[in-house]
Amino acid sequence: MQVVCAGGGPASLYLAILLKLQDPGRDVRVHERDPAGATYGWGVTYWPEMLARLAACDEVSAHTIEKESVCWSGGVAHIRDRTTSHDGDEGFAIGRHRLLEILAERATGLGVDVRYGHPVLPGDPALDGDLVVAGDGSRSALRDEHREHFGTRVELGNNRFVWLGTTRVFTSFTFAFVDTGHGWLWCYAYGFDGTHSTCVVECSPETWAGLGLGSMARADTLKLLESLLAKPLRGHPLIDRTESDGPLPWQQFRTVTNRVWSRGNLVLLGDAAHTTHYSIGAGTTLAMQDAMALARALRDPGPLPAALGHYERTRRRELLPHQSAARHSANWYENLTRYVDLAPHQMFALLGQRHSPLLPYVPPQLYYRVDRAVDRTQALRSLKRWLGPRVARILQNK
Questions:
Q1: What is the dihedral of CA 73, 74, 78, 84, to 10 degrees?
Q2: CA distance 365 to 330
Q3: pLDDT score, position 377
Q4: What is the DSSP letter of 339?
Q5: Which is nearest to 47 in space by CA: 289, 231, 248, 274?
Q6: What is the tens place of the pLDDT at every residue in 183-228?
Q7: Mean pLDDT for all residues in the chain
Q8: What is the pLDDT of residue 386?
Q9: With CB atoms 3.0 to 4.6 Å apart as the test, which of 56, 112, 163, 186 could cross-link to 107 if both were Cys?
Q10: Angstrom distance (rounded) from CA 221 to CA 242
């Protein structure tokens, strides 16, 4: 089997590794449009269960990823001039650039042909293979050529956001919420190596417009954001990797869904197939899990359409809870003013509950009190998990 992957992100590279481990005789090629070492973003997060899944698939790359990652635990929230914190689950982060290096080195070591600076577009002879994998991101050119067949749908979030870095190394997942006078602005920050952290800054469209962030010069925007987020940054600068002139590249999150994931020998992978809001920190993890599922579907000989159908059904089922959590998480931030007047510890508690389908329908103070009472009893916790999605469906259908 000849496999051609368009896009050299983590999902494509990991799929190439797994396919070569299954059958060293496979011809597997990865085409990445950017030069080697070029990447967007800063760090990516993942959880201990993901590390276990990586180790089960390929111990060699899993060991290197773990060694190069940093560990953080718990959370801190700065809300106006107050700070609150809580103990939480352990998480991991790694620089996106380093993750891509690890996966590319492992892939080439197994015989994968990884080609950089080589974009592939529809009709390119390089796409001549038994299986073509569209791993070329949420704006996939290979998918969009057959947009009607795939039933591609893109929904834009209301809020504006920008990915930045900082030299402040956060050892806990950190949030900061600031009233700017034009509305609220906030950040999510986490360390990913010994010298840098990711800092995602987000705000409502009203705040974005009121502060003039859409037209403000890049250097002036960074200075303004540094002053607004002075408490968590502790004097450290914010860093932007964008090289072009003009304002910072503020975005609206693109939620991508597709009615089907394959067409003939073309199959969608990662963000080309689906996206989940960055506030749940699962995008790279879910894309690499796509690669695991597709590799498993291709493990045994059989008709390609059957394998691709099995892959799609498996991943759709596995993605449902994550997509639900992402949708509710994005909604929580788009309705931030519903929660900001709570006591800081209450707001932080509901921040941790933002994935709940019930939260938008229950007054925040009441939800907080009931949730604290429920969590004291195991039986009530189980009832809450069972009841929540069912009540939400009834409320949403009214």
A1: -150
A2: 20
A3: 62
A4: T
A5: 289
A6: 999 999 999 999 999 999 999 999 999 999 999 999 999 999 999 9
A7: 92
A8: 54
A9: 112
A10: 13
User: 64-91 pLDDT, tens per residue?
Assistant: 999 999 998 889 999 998 999 888 778 9
Place of tokens 């396919």: 19
Q: What angle do CA 258, 260, 266 make, to 5 degrees?
A: 105
In the DSSP assignment, the letter for residue 35 is: P
380 is written with which tokens? Answer: 């009530």
Sorted by sequence, the CB contacts under 8 Å of residue 55 that are 6+ apart come out as: 62, 63
Q: Structure tokens of 131?
A: 């299986």
Provide the CB-side half-sphere exposure for 274 (13 A, CA): 26
Helix H or strand E segment including 186:
strand 184-191
DSSP string, 38-105: --SSSEEEE-HHHHHHHHHH-HHHHHHHHHH-EEEEEEEEEETTEEEEEEEEEEEEEEHHHHHHHHHH
Q: Who wins on pLDDT, 93 or 245?
A: 93
Token output for 228: 């607004």
Neighbours of 220 (CB within 10 A): 13
Q: pTM for this one?
A: 0.92
- Top pLDDT among 377 and 19 is at 19
pLDDT band of residue 395 (cuts 50, 70, 90) is: very low
Beta carbons of 156 and 256 less than 8 angstroms apart: no
